[in-house]
Amino acid sequence: MLVNVFHDHYCWPPGFYVDERYDADEPFQPDATLSTFNAQIKATELINYIQEQADHRREQHLLLPWGCDFTYANAKMNFDQMDKIIQFVNKYNTKNITLQYSTPSQYIDAIKKDNITWAVKYDDGFPYSDNLDDYWTGYFSSRATQKKMIRDTSSYMHASEKMYAKKVVDKDVTDKEVAEIMSAKDSLTDILGVL
Where do the structural domains in the chain lie, given as residue ranges? Predict the structure, then answer.
């Protein structure tokens, strides 16, 4: 299993938190005729951030997450920002850096081409702590029986939904049967949702 650890967090790089739900940072503005023009400064910040990461990495391709928890409520806003940043940085940076959209599988394929022999870790990575006195001990091992029951119930629910759908589209089904089917389905969905 190949593991990638992000440089500092799994959200945007510092200075680029722009979303309807994260309005902490100024949007990237490449139009030099506007008083809010900041593309050169922000591009330099991003390139410095990438170079700092590259100094601690062996691979030539870096994964740079863009977004955070509960973001992309307005995906157009995010993609417009990324388009502007990618276009500006790729056109004006003087470093050997090219930004592009990617998927996890494209990233994995790219680092495979770097032909690096990776270190192998045999011991457990837990307990992991991401804040002072906040340990993730037992994150994967606690309540194993309950987690197994959830997986099993999810499988049953998936199978039963196919049966429900088949029955509901039957021309001979009654309104009462449909109501009973939907009640049973909703009940199971509610239980799984809480768990």
Answer: 7-116, 144-194
Q: What is the C-alpha to C-alpha distance for residues 98 and 61, in angstroms, rounded to an integer?
A: 10
Q: What is the pTM assigned to this prediction? A: 0.66
Residue corresponding to tokens 């739900």:
21
The overall average pLDDT reported for the chain is 88
- Say how far apart CA 143 and CA 147 lie, in whole Å: 6
Q: Is 74 helix (H, G, I), strand (E, B) or coil?
A: coil
In the chain, pLDDT over 90 holds for what percent of residues?
41
- Backbone dihedral region for residue 65 (phi beyond 0: left; psi -120 to 50: alpha; all else: beta): beta
pLDDT, position 147:
86
Rg (Cα) of the chain, in Å, rounded?
A: 24
For residue 21, the model assigns a pLDDT of 84
Give the count of beta carbons closer than 10 Å to the beta carbon of residue 19: 22
Q: What is the pLDDT of residue 70?
A: 87
Tell whether the model's pLDDT for residue 20 goes beyond 80: yes
Long-range contacts of 2-7 (CB under 8 A, 24+ apart): 2/108, 2/118, 3/121, 4/63, 6/63, 6/65, 7/49, 7/52, 7/53, 7/56
159 neighbors 150 (Cβ within 8 angstroms):
no
Q: What region, left, alpha or beta, does residue 70 occupy, with left being phi > 0 and alpha being psi -120 to 50 degrees?
A: left
What pLDDT is attached to residue 135?
Answer: 75
Q: Which class in CATH covers the domain with range 7-116? A: alpha beta
